[in-house]
Design a protein that fits this description.
Layout (H helix, E strand, L loop, with lengths): L6 E6 L12 E6 L5 H8 L18 E5 L4 E4 L10 H16 L4 E9 L6 H12 L4 E6 L6 H14 L8 E3 L8 H21 L6
Parallel strand pairs: 2-4, 2-5, 5-6, 6-7
Antiparallel strand pairs: 1-3, 3-4
Protein backbone atom coordinates (compact mmCIF):
# COMPACT_ATOMS: atom_id res chain seq x y z
CA UNK A 1 0.00 0.00 0.00
CA UNK A 2 1.23 3.47 -0.79
CA UNK A 3 0.72 5.27 2.53
CA UNK A 4 1.51 8.63 0.95
CA UNK A 5 -1.45 8.34 -1.43
CA UNK A 6 -4.35 8.74 0.96
CA UNK A 7 -7.03 11.38 0.90
CA UNK A 8 -9.78 12.54 3.18
CA UNK A 9 -13.03 11.44 1.59
CA UNK A 10 -16.00 12.72 3.58
CA UNK A 11 -17.71 12.90 7.00
CA UNK A 12 -21.20 11.88 8.08
CA UNK A 13 -23.07 12.70 11.29
CA UNK A 14 -26.05 10.36 11.05
CA UNK A 15 -26.53 6.73 9.97
CA UNK A 16 -28.97 7.72 7.25
CA UNK A 17 -26.24 9.69 5.46
CA UNK A 18 -23.84 6.76 5.20
CA UNK A 19 -23.33 5.56 1.61
CA UNK A 20 -22.97 1.85 0.82
CA UNK A 21 -19.49 0.34 0.95
CA UNK A 22 -17.68 0.51 -2.36
CA UNK A 23 -14.34 -0.84 -1.09
CA UNK A 24 -13.32 -2.99 1.89
CA UNK A 25 -13.23 -0.86 5.03
CA UNK A 26 -10.73 -0.71 7.90
CA UNK A 27 -12.35 0.75 11.01
CA UNK A 28 -10.72 2.76 13.82
CA UNK A 29 -12.67 2.48 17.09
CA UNK A 30 -11.85 3.47 20.66
CA UNK A 31 -12.49 5.73 23.62
CA UNK A 32 -12.26 9.48 23.37
CA UNK A 33 -8.67 10.68 23.73
CA UNK A 34 -7.23 7.21 23.08
CA UNK A 35 -5.15 8.61 20.22
CA UNK A 36 -7.08 7.63 17.10
CA UNK A 37 -6.33 10.81 15.17
CA UNK A 38 -2.66 10.70 16.13
CA UNK A 39 -2.44 7.06 15.05
CA UNK A 40 -4.06 7.83 11.68
CA UNK A 41 -1.65 10.71 11.06
CA UNK A 42 1.32 8.55 12.09
CA UNK A 43 0.18 5.62 9.96
CA UNK A 44 -0.03 7.77 6.83
CA UNK A 45 2.93 9.97 7.75
CA UNK A 46 0.86 13.16 7.70
CA UNK A 47 0.30 15.81 10.34
CA UNK A 48 -3.22 17.00 9.58
CA UNK A 49 -5.01 14.16 7.76
CA UNK A 50 -7.04 13.56 10.92
CA UNK A 51 -7.63 16.47 13.27
CA UNK A 52 -5.98 16.08 16.67
CA UNK A 53 -7.74 17.96 19.45
CA UNK A 54 -6.70 18.57 23.04
CA UNK A 55 -10.38 18.32 23.97
CA UNK A 56 -11.72 14.74 24.12
CA UNK A 57 -14.97 14.00 22.37
CA UNK A 58 -14.49 16.42 19.48
CA UNK A 59 -14.89 13.77 16.76
CA UNK A 60 -18.67 13.60 16.46
CA UNK A 61 -18.83 12.22 12.93
CA UNK A 62 -17.61 9.17 11.05
CA UNK A 63 -14.69 10.35 8.94
CA UNK A 64 -13.70 8.40 5.84
CA UNK A 65 -10.27 8.26 4.21
CA UNK A 66 -9.39 6.47 0.99
CA UNK A 67 -6.40 4.68 -0.48
CA UNK A 68 -6.28 2.85 -3.78
CA UNK A 69 -7.88 -0.35 -2.51
CA UNK A 70 -9.25 0.43 0.97
CA UNK A 71 -11.53 2.83 2.81
CA UNK A 72 -10.59 3.81 6.38
CA UNK A 73 -13.46 4.74 8.72
CA UNK A 74 -12.69 6.76 11.86
CA UNK A 75 -15.58 6.30 14.30
CA UNK A 76 -16.47 8.81 17.04
CA UNK A 77 -14.67 8.19 20.33
CA UNK A 78 -16.89 6.61 22.96
CA UNK A 79 -16.99 6.95 26.73
CA UNK A 80 -16.42 10.69 27.16
CA UNK A 81 -18.44 11.85 30.16
CA UNK A 82 -18.55 15.62 29.58
CA UNK A 83 -21.11 15.72 26.81
CA UNK A 84 -24.89 15.81 26.99
CA UNK A 85 -26.97 12.64 27.07
CA UNK A 86 -28.46 13.61 23.75
CA UNK A 87 -25.03 13.89 22.16
CA UNK A 88 -23.95 10.55 23.65
CA UNK A 89 -27.12 8.99 22.26
CA UNK A 90 -26.42 10.43 18.82
CA UNK A 91 -22.85 9.09 18.85
CA UNK A 92 -24.10 5.65 19.93
CA UNK A 93 -26.74 5.63 17.20
CA UNK A 94 -24.13 6.67 14.65
CA UNK A 95 -21.77 3.86 15.60
CA UNK A 96 -24.53 1.28 15.90
CA UNK A 97 -25.96 2.45 12.58
CA UNK A 98 -22.59 1.98 10.92
CA UNK A 99 -22.13 -1.59 12.14
CA UNK A 100 -25.80 -2.47 11.52
CA UNK A 101 -25.45 -1.78 7.81
CA UNK A 102 -24.32 -4.36 5.31
CA UNK A 103 -20.81 -2.93 5.11
CA UNK A 104 -17.68 -4.59 3.77
CA UNK A 105 -15.69 -4.45 7.01
CA UNK A 106 -12.29 -6.01 6.41
CA UNK A 107 -10.74 -5.22 9.81
CA UNK A 108 -11.50 -3.30 13.00
CA UNK A 109 -8.62 -1.65 14.85
CA UNK A 110 -9.85 -1.44 18.44
CA UNK A 111 -7.68 1.18 20.16
CA UNK A 112 -7.13 1.04 23.93
CA UNK A 113 -4.86 3.10 26.17
CA UNK A 114 -2.03 0.82 27.24
CA UNK A 115 -1.62 2.65 30.57
CA UNK A 116 -5.03 1.65 31.97
CA UNK A 117 -7.21 -1.45 32.28
CA UNK A 118 -9.85 -1.69 29.52
CA UNK A 119 -13.01 0.24 30.33
CA UNK A 120 -16.47 -1.25 30.36
CA UNK A 121 -16.99 0.22 26.89
CA UNK A 122 -13.73 -1.34 25.68
CA UNK A 123 -14.83 -4.75 26.91
CA UNK A 124 -18.25 -4.28 25.35
CA UNK A 125 -16.62 -3.42 22.01
CA UNK A 126 -14.56 -6.63 22.07
CA UNK A 127 -17.62 -8.68 22.97
CA UNK A 128 -19.55 -7.06 20.11
CA UNK A 129 -16.78 -7.75 17.59
CA UNK A 130 -16.43 -11.38 18.68
CA UNK A 131 -20.15 -12.04 18.73
CA UNK A 132 -20.55 -10.52 15.26
CA UNK A 133 -17.50 -12.40 13.94
CA UNK A 134 -15.77 -9.22 12.80
CA UNK A 135 -11.99 -9.49 12.36
CA UNK A 136 -10.15 -7.18 14.73
CA UNK A 137 -6.86 -6.31 16.37
CA UNK A 138 -6.43 -4.48 19.68
CA UNK A 139 -3.96 -1.60 19.29
CA UNK A 140 -2.48 -0.54 22.64
CA UNK A 141 -1.70 3.16 22.30
CA UNK A 142 0.69 5.45 24.20
CA UNK A 143 3.15 2.70 25.09
CA UNK A 144 5.92 5.32 25.18
CA UNK A 145 4.38 6.53 28.46
CA UNK A 146 5.21 3.22 30.17
CA UNK A 147 8.48 1.98 31.57
CA UNK A 148 9.73 -1.43 30.45
CA UNK A 149 8.43 -3.08 33.61
CA UNK A 150 5.07 -1.28 33.43
CA UNK A 151 4.66 -2.32 29.80
CA UNK A 152 5.35 -5.97 30.59
CA UNK A 153 2.88 -5.84 33.47
CA UNK A 154 0.14 -4.19 31.40
CA UNK A 155 0.57 -6.53 28.42
CA UNK A 156 0.20 -9.52 30.71
CA UNK A 157 -2.74 -8.01 32.59
CA UNK A 158 -4.77 -6.98 29.55
CA UNK A 159 -4.96 -10.57 28.37
CA UNK A 160 -6.83 -11.36 31.57
CA UNK A 161 -8.88 -8.16 31.63
CA UNK A 162 -10.45 -8.54 28.18
CA UNK A 163 -12.87 -11.28 27.15
CA UNK A 164 -11.08 -13.78 24.91
CA UNK A 165 -7.89 -11.88 25.77
CA UNK A 166 -5.58 -14.85 25.25
CA UNK A 167 -6.84 -15.26 21.68
CA UNK A 168 -6.56 -11.60 20.67
CA UNK A 169 -3.71 -10.09 18.67
CA UNK A 170 -2.33 -7.07 20.58
CA UNK A 171 -0.22 -4.44 18.85
CA UNK A 172 1.69 -1.94 21.04
CA UNK A 173 1.78 1.47 19.37
CA UNK A 174 3.20 4.94 19.95
CA UNK A 175 2.40 7.88 17.71
CA UNK A 176 5.24 9.78 19.38
CA UNK A 177 8.08 7.33 18.71
CA UNK A 178 6.62 5.45 15.75
CA UNK A 179 6.76 2.13 17.57
CA UNK A 180 4.31 -0.32 16.06
CA UNK A 181 3.77 1.69 12.88
CA UNK A 182 5.66 -0.68 10.60
CA UNK A 183 3.98 -3.70 12.21
CA UNK A 184 0.57 -2.12 11.63
CA UNK A 185 1.48 -1.27 8.05
CA UNK A 186 2.64 -4.85 7.48
CA UNK A 187 -0.69 -6.10 8.83
CA UNK A 188 -2.61 -3.79 6.50
CA UNK A 189 -0.38 -4.66 3.54
CA UNK A 190 -1.12 -8.35 4.12
CA UNK A 191 -4.82 -7.59 4.42
CA UNK A 192 -4.76 -5.68 1.13
CA UNK A 193 -2.83 -8.50 -0.57
CA UNK A 194 -5.35 -11.06 0.71
CA UNK A 195 -8.26 -8.96 -0.56
CA UNK A 196 -6.67 -8.53 -3.98
CA UNK A 197 -6.01 -12.26 -4.03
CA UNK A 198 -9.72 -12.83 -3.44
CA UNK A 199 -10.50 -10.87 -6.58
CA UNK A 200 -8.04 -12.87 -8.63
CA UNK A 201 -8.91 -16.34 -7.35
CA UNK A 202 -12.49 -15.93 -6.25
CA UNK A 203 -11.71 -17.24 -2.76
CA UNK A 204 -11.14 -15.14 0.32
CA UNK A 205 -7.98 -15.70 2.30
CA UNK A 206 -8.64 -15.55 6.06
CA UNK A 207 -6.92 -12.68 7.86
Amino acid sequence: MNYHKVRFLTSFGSPGQLPPSRKPEVVFAGRSNVGKSSLINSLFNQKTLARVSATPGKTATINFFETENLIFADLPGYGYAKVSRGEKRRWAQLMEGYFAQDRDIALVLSLMDSRHPPSRDDRAMVEFLVENELPFVVVLTKVDKLSASQRKERLEAVREELPWGKQILFLPFSSQTGEGREQLRALLDQLEADLLGEGEEGEKTPC
